[in-house]
Amino acid sequence: MPELVKPSAKYRESFLAAMAELKTDGRHYDELNVTRENFAGYLTEMESRSQGINVPADRVPATKFWLVEDDRFIGRLDIRHELNDNLLKIGGHIGYFIRPSERRRGYGKKILELGLVEAKKLGLKNVLVTCDVTNLGSAKIIEENGGRLENQVEQGGGMPAKARYWIEIK
């Protein structure tokens, strides 16, 4: 059964294999720069950021979780503790991805479901989750987890518009 865990060296090789898969995904993920050599520093940096330490000026404190099953990295979930202007417009409180080889198996719905439990523990009551309007699978996942579409906003730069959903955590 899949579970959310804090990033850990236990999953390093599976995590790095997933990052290799994501390099062909055509999207930008901060984790794509993680290597065996800088992995320990990456873990330390993520823990610091979850405590609001060494957070870059354009970012907010965020807690990172990994979805794992049978000691295998399946996906990543970020819970941003607050929103800045950019996150309010297009990023939201929660961001997640599933490694390409594990998509279309129900993991997206599960990672968001578990993420909402963790967001509640952080004191969040209403969370913003966004996706590209062209990402129908992600829109379905958000809606299945209680997401209510507020609107769509243009990103510019040839990027698809973002659909903005609010989820009330009960």
Task: Tell me what the structure shows.
- This protein is α+β, with helices and mostly antiparallel strands.
- 32% of the residues lie in helices and 26% in strands.
- The protein has helices spanning 12-22, 39-50, 85-91, 107-121, 136-144, and strands at 3-5, 62-69, 72-80, 94-98, 126-132, 148-153, 162-168.
- The chain has a four-stranded antiparallel beta sheet, sandwiched between helices.
- The mean pLDDT is 94.
User: Main β-sheet, in a few words?
Assistant: 4 strands, antiparallel
What general form does the structure show? globular
Task: Report the end-to-end length measured between terminal Cα atoms.
Answer: 23 Å
Number of helices: 5
Low-confidence region ranges: none
Estimate the mean pLDDT confidence: 94
Count every beta strand, where a strand is a DSSP E run of 2 or more residues.
7
The percentage of residues in β strands lies in 25-35%
Cα radius of gyration in angstroms: 15 Å
Strand order of the largest sheet: 1-2-3-4
Q: Give the helix level as a range of percent.
A: 25-40%
Report the order of strands and helices. EHHEEHEHEHEE
Class inferred from helices and paired strands: alpha+beta
